[in-house]
Each structure stands twice: as C-alpha cells, then as structure tokens.
Amino acid sequence: MLKFIIKRIAVAIPTLWAIITLVFFLVRLAPGSPFSGERALSPEALAALMHQYRLDLPLYQQYFLYLGDLIHGNLGTSMKYLGQSINQLLFPDNVGGFWVTLRLTIYTMSLAIPLGIVSGCYAGLRKDSWFDRLVVSGNIVLTAIPTMVTGPLAVLLFAVVLGILPAGTWGDGGFRHLFMPVAVLTSAYIPTIAVITRGSIIDVLNSNYIRTARAKGLPTSIILFRHAIRPTLLPVISVLGPMIAGVLVGAVVTEQIFTLPGLGVLTTNAATNRDYNMIMAITILGSTLTIVFNILVDICYSLLDPKITR
Questions:
Q1: d(CA 49, CA 57)
Q2: Of 283, 288, 291, which Cα lies nearest the Cα of 263?
Q3: pLDDT digit of tens for each residue in the chain (310 aa)?
Q4: Are 224 and 147 in contact (CB under 8 A)?
C-alpha cells in the first residue's frame, strides 16, 4: 500500500508543476494587463506598479521568481486588492475565503453522498418500479437545470414568496443562511450519485458470483451487504474525488447567487480583473485538491479491491 501511495504522489508532483507552468505563461501572454482598466494610469504610476509586481522583468525571470516564492508557501500579493496577501485572502483568520467554501462543501457532500447512495441502491434493487423511474427522471431533470436557475428559484420561493429565509449573505453561518445554498448544491449532486449507484448495483446483482450466492440460498441482506455493496461502491467512489474538489473550487455560481464570501467572489474578481497571482493561487488550490482527492480515491479503491495495487 505504501509503495502504491508513493507512486501516485511521484506522478502527482510533475503533474502539478506542469499545470502551474502552463497557467503561468497563458495568463501572462493573454492580451491586456491587470492595470489596463477604465481609468488610465499615469506612466509613472503604471511603471511603479509594474515594478512592484515584477511585470517589468523578462517572463522567464518572473516564472522562476514565482516558483521560488511558491516553494516557500508565498502565493504573492493581489493585483486587484492592492497590497493584500493572497494567502490571507484565501485563508483569512476570520470567516471568508476557503473556509466558507469548505463548510459549504462539507454540508453538501454530507447530505449528497449518503442520500445518493441509498436512493441509488434502492432504485437498483427495485428496478422498473415507480421509485426507480423517479430517480432516473429526476437525474435527467436536475442535471439539465443548472444552479444558476435553481438558485434564483429557491430565493424566489423561500425568501420572496414565503419569507421564511434570508435571500443571501453569510450572516452568522447558521441554518437559515446556509439552507438554500446547501439545498441547491445537494440537489445538483444527489441525482448523479444515485444514478451511478443504481447502474452499478444492477450490474453487480446480475454477475455470476451473486447468482451463485443466491443459488446457495443466502438471504438477500447477506448477499447485499457482504457480497454486493463493495463492488457497487467502486464506480461511485471514482466520481466522488473530482466531485468534492469541484464543489470546493467550483461553487462559483451558487456563492454569487447567495452572496457568500467564499472562493466564488475571489474567482470572479480574479478573472474579470486579470489578477494574475489570484488566478494562479486558485488554479494551484483547485489542482492540488483534485490531485489529493484522486489519490484518496485510489486508496479507497485499493481498500475495496486489493488487486488494484498489484
């Protein structure tokens, strides 16, 4: 197992370096600059800012200086929030940034994963029943409707029509402020998990070793929990890693709709203002989380099926 993990980490490091290198040069070679806004700066002010952020140096020197800072854990300073450390913006001491998005992700996946697996298993066990058809049709409908639609609809229903929940903002981070964003994100991920679980358990139950277990007269509960559940979870686990990482760095629309001070606001501002350092930081964070969760998925895979590590 340890050898398997080391091999995965050895592959992950050059992968992350390649992503950092590619994004670094792409954002700097794109037209425009962080300081080409509506109000033109004087040549002296522009030169001072370019020197402050090392943008007056050759591109290769900027690259190696950035890698040197990155190795020491320094993500640089923001070009949108002038003078503010990106480390502090992403990971503030108080509420905001990554901590808001992390909390939102924990609540969302804590609901989506068990509900999706349970409903998918039940639908697979009751194939062609009304519940099975509900799961399949629900996946089609909810997958087709993006959060940019379900979010405003939730605000209209719960905040405007019923008036029982606030329309947005983080507030105290309590139930009333988190219910709608968590519900919107959960409804987006439950159908995917449920349908994958449903298809997996149907395939497993039709396999030869399950037929053999049934021929021996084993009870359905023993067949399900002792022989079927582990292979059923393999395809589900394979999507959970990228899914969790995607929620952590990709809940931009949901956070914008409900005005949450998470990574969504920072990502939007970085993109619209060409904040090179913030774009790099969010890319590195997202890539690192994706790689880490994929490694965790591989570890879970190997625990469920030891043949994978051979």
A1: 12
A2: 283
A3: 677 778 888 888 899 999 999 999 998 888 777 877 656 677 788 888 888 888 888 999 999 999 999 998 898 888 887 778 899 888 888 778 888 888 888 999 999 999 999 999 989 888 888 998 998 888 888 888 888 888 889 999 888 888 888 887 887 778 888 899 999 999 888 988 999 999 988 888 888 877 787 787 777 778 777 778 888 888 888 888 888 887 877 678 888 888 888 888 888 888 888 888 999 999 898 888 888 888 888 888 777 766 655 5
A4: no
Is residue 163 within 8 Å of residue 88, measured between CB atoms?
no
Please state, in angstroms and rounded to a whole number, the distance separating the CA atoms of residues 294 and 310: 18
> Which run of H or E residues covers position 263?
helix 263-272
DSSP structure string for 99-129: HHHHHHHHHHHHHHHHHHHHHHHHHHHTTTS
Domains and CATH numbers, the chain: 20-87 (no CATH), 99-309 (1.10.3720.10)
Question: Rounded distance, CA 48 to CA 40, Å?
Answer: 14
Q: How many helices (H) and strands (E) does the chain have?
A: 14, 0
Coil vs helix vs strand at 158: helix
The HSE-up count of residue 241 (CA atoms within 13 Å, CB side) is 20
pTM of the full structure: 0.83
